[in-house]
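Go through this one:
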Amino acid sequence: MEITTVVRGKRGGFVINGSHHVPNILENRHRVMIQEWIDDGGVVTDWVDPITPYQHWHNDISKLDKDMPRSLEDILDGMPDKSGVAQITLDRLQAKKNKRGERP
């Protein structure tokens, strides 16, 4: 296999030529090939997260929406007295408000 690019993987391993995932274990023959490539002047590039900060935020909000839909938030926000609402529900409501405040 000819190595043209090596990227440090998201979980600590390596990706050769954009497709071959290699664990960072020196007993692995492909890991040895990577080290030889580095010794010959090859440069390992760092992995770049293709997901934008907004997409991360949106994914987090979507997960919170599964536990508490927006319509339930509106109902709770409209209640003048929340003393009869379970604490876990109020905590989830606050978590969603906090996450919305972090929008990039």
Q: What stands out?
A: The chain has a mean pLDDT of 91.
